[in-house]
Design goal:
This protein has 462 residues and is an alpha/beta fold. It is 47% helix and 18% strand. The chain is built from 18 helices and 15 strands. It has helices spanning 37-45, 60-68, 82-101, 115-138, 155-162, 179-182, 187-197, 208-221, 239-245, 249-262, 281-294, 316-336, 352-361, 377-384, 400-403, 415-426, 430-444, 449-461, and strands at residues 8-13, 19-23, 29-33, 51-56, 75-78, 139-148, 167-171, 202-205, 229-232, 267-274, 302-309, 344-347, 364-367, 390-394, 408-410. A seven-stranded parallel β-sheet has the order 5-4-1-6-7-8-9, sandwiched between helices. β8, α8 and β9 form a beta-alpha-beta unit. α3 packs across α4, α10 crosses α13 (352-361) and α11 (281-294) packs parallel to α12 (316-336). The longest helix has 24 residues, at 115-138. 48% of the residues are buried. Bound molecules: 6-O-phosphono-alpha-D-glucopyranose (G6P). 6-O-phosphono-alpha-D-glucopyranose is lined by residues 16, 149, 173-174, 311-312. Residues 16, 149, 173-174, 311-312 line the site of 6-O-phosphono-alpha-D-glucopyranose.
């Protein structure tokens, strides 16, 4: 298929871009820049590299920006029809593919792949096609394109058809489902996802476990990987950025406020997550309650600081889960709280400075997802921690592969086991805790975002 060529040599594509716009009261648009691995990765290659980030317009502000022709340098937002986007993002990406890879279905009732699912799937195809067309139009001859995540699994194949000259990569930030779970998807859809991904020259995963699961799916369902190469790039935390940012004045202010809420001389168990089903926040609260039940000596002497920031609130299951987190936290506070002690301090308003403040104060960090591609909180806390912090880590988090040896490891479904792990973490001798924190910080920052990105780029260029 012939197509005109663009001018960009390096392109990335993702659903969520590096910037979003908000419509102000006076009708003007305000840009808000996000962080994350890709932002740092791209800044590592510099503004002269001719890179372009293709992403979706995600709300009214973004759509308005596209209409007014407002754009950041190096960013192209696609104004995909809002209904098509909602079907693709909420319907397929977040309610089906995310659920499959995180194994979140309550299988006696879900999933049901009915006519409505097929209708949404057509939107997912259209949404992927819009990305493939934009990338095909913007890429220079022989350019490198790295497509991100489960929202865009069909793009590599669609782009390969349009532009066989390109070097195409895809990176998965999620786990990959085991084959018996993955093939719950209708056969033709499962095949389409795998073949779409295999349109890439190279596929990247966060851990060997997820890479192996993908390979197993290809072996079972489409006769293997063909010519596509697989690589593992365990995205790490950005030590320089975190150390600098966590010592700014706003973080110190948040620390003072948190200390006030925690109270004098108490231990702190911290968790920071999006309010995401896979993060297992409710079982974390239940484990904390079990700790207070089994170890009365901790009552009044420990506080669970839980930050659960709103996520994907268009989906009813996420809204229900958010309510459940709040309900259980309130229940624990009314069951055990005393006039001078609030056992659970729950915050739901996203505040990065306050997250860093909690990292610095934490005696224990609880990272207990039922399944997680990596989990960067597990890697960030040890870098920032002031006095050493014990990491209680789920064996189902990707980070377990790199951090498992120096963490207190839990089965995320085992509430009693997690309560025991919390007690072990709280009673760990300070010397051991400091040593482990040092090793965790080193392991968790071994592949900072800039290198993570450059590694993939080199592999594709080579
Ligand atoms: C995960 C996904 C990302 C996604 C992020 C936030 O980390 O791998 O692709 O951007 O969650 O979710 P959201 O739906 O808000 O973009």
């Amino acid at each position: 298929m012939a197509s005109t060529q663009g001018a960009h040599n390096i392109l990335v594509a993702s659903n969520r871009g590096p910037v979003t716009y908000e419509v102000q009261e006076d009708g003007s648009l305000r840009a808000r820049r996000g962080g994350g691995g890709l932002v740092s990765g791209l800044s590592a290659i510099g503004p002269d590299a001719g890179a372009l980030w293709v992403c979706s317009a995600l709300g009214d502000g973004d759509r308005e920006a596209v209409r007014r022709g407002i754009a950041e340098d190096g960013v192209r937002m696609l104004d995909i029809d809002a209904d098509v986007h909602a079907d693709a993002y909420n319907g397929i990406a977040n309610s089906v593919l995310w659920f499959v890879h995180h194994m979140l279905y309550q299988t006696p009732l879900e999933p049901v792949f009915d006519a409505e699912f097929r209708r949404q799937w057509a939107s997912y195809e259209a949404y992927n096609r819009a990305f493939a067309e934009a990338l095909a139009a913007e890429a220079a001859r022989g350019a490198v394109v790295i497509v991100q995540d489960y929202h865009l699994t069909l793009v590599p194949g669609m782009l390969r058809e349009r532009r066989p000259d390109l070097r195409i990569g895809h990176f998965s930030h999620t786990p990959w489902a085991p084959v018996d779970y993955f093939r719950m998807l209708p056969d033709d859809i499962a095949e389409q996802v795998l073949r779409g991904m295999l349109g890439a020259d190279r596929l990247g995963f966060l851990t060997q476990r997820w890479a192996d699961a993908f390979t197993a799916c290809c072996d079972a369902l489409v006769g293997g990987l063909g010519d596509t190469r697989i690589g593992v790039h365990g995205l790490g935390a950005d030590a320089d950025f975190l150390r600098r940012r966590s010592h700014e004045a706003d973080v110190a202010d948040r620390m003072a406020a948190l200390r006030e809420q925690i109270g004098e001389g108490r231990r702190t168990i911290v968790r920071v997550d999006r309010t995401e089903l896979s993060k297992n926040i409710v079982r974390g609260l239940l484990a904390y309650r079990q700790l207070l039940e089994d170890h009365p000596e901790w009552r009044e002497r420990v506080v669970h600081v839980a930050f659960a920031y709103p996520s994907r609130q268009d989906l009813a299951v996420y809204r229900d889960y958010t309510a459940e987190v709040q309900r259980v936290a309130t229940e624990i506070n009314s069951q055990y709280g005393t006039p001078g002690w609030t056992p659970v301090v729950l915050h739901v308003k996203d505040d990065f400075a306050r997250s860093l403040a909690a990292y610095r104060l934490a005696d224990v960090a609880l990272v207990n997802p039922i399944r997680d591609g990596m989990n960067l909180v597990a890697k960030e806390v040890p870098v920032v921690s002031d006095e050493g912090c014990v990491l209680v880590l789920s064996r189902e988090a990707g980070a377990y592969e790199e951090l498992g040896e120096d963490a207190v490891v839990v089965n995320p479904y085992d509430v009693v086991g997690t309560a025991r792990a919390l007690d072990a973490a709280l009673t760990m001798p300070v010397g051991e805790r400091a040593e482990r924190t040092k090793r965790l910080a080193a392991a968790g920052t071994a592949l900072p975002p800039a290198q993570w990105f450059l590694e993939q780029l080199r592999e594709l260029e080579g």
